[in-house]
Amino acid sequence: MTSRKLRSLSLVEAIYFGDKEVLAECKKLYDSWKNDGTWIAPNLRESVYTAGIIGGGSEEWQYLLDYLQNSTIPSEKSLLVDVLSESPNTEQLKQFLEYSLDSTKIDPQDKYKVITRVANRPSGHHLARNFLFHNWKTFFG
């Protein structure tokens, strides 16, 4: 594993485990990117986007969702699906699951990833299960 990848993973894990200093620094980078268009190095994008989701609110989540819908780069879209599913807000996770049914919002090939990623969150497990139960015919009908 490269030192850049290890650094990126370490920053993301620090955010997940509540390191306020790392969260604050990455959130500053997120705000600068969102407000001023400041470029983010590819190896820092996951930690910066994660800081926006974990340290932000509905505005940051919606901004990344809009960014996902406008992105044309498959690797960036995959990263954004991962990060958006990390929201601590269950209403956002429910909305993300619902969006997975709409091919104008989430690419059809990514809908299963949305469900899986939400299901992997402690707060999303029951949401994903209920979502699949209520939409069973859509997926398996």
Description:
The chain is mainly alpha-helical and 141 residues long. The protein is 71% helix and 0% strand. It has nine helices and no strands. Helix 2 crosses helix 3 and helix 6 runs antiparallel to helix 7. The longest helix is centred in the first third of the chain and has 17 residues. The termini are far apart. 30% of the residues are buried. This is Aminopeptidase Ey-like. It comes from Limulus polyphemus (Atlantic horseshoe crab). Belongs to the peptidase M1 family. It holds the Pfam family ERAP1_C.
Could you give a short description of this structure?
By secondary structure, the protein is mainly α.
C-alpha geometry: globular
Based on secondary structure, the structural category is: mainly alpha
Radius of gyration: 15 Å
Report the sheet with the most strands, covering strand number, pairing sense and barrel closure. Answer: none
Strand content: under 5%
Number of distinct helices: 9
- Residue-averaged pLDDT, rounded? 92
Distance between the termini: 42 Å
Low-confidence residue ranges: none
Q: Would you list the SSEs in sequence order as H and E?
A: HHHHHHHHH
**SS elements, strand count:** 0
Helix content: over 70%
SSE blueprint and pairings:
Elements: H1 3-16, H2 20-36, H3 45-55, H4 58-70, H5 74-84, H6 90-99, H7 111-119, H8 125-134, H9 136-140
Helix pairs in contact: 1-3, 2-3, 3-5, 4-5, 6-7, 7-8
Pfam family, one: ERAP1_C
Protein name: Aminopeptidase Ey-like
InterPro entries: ERAP1-like_C_dom, Peptidase_M1_aminopeptidases
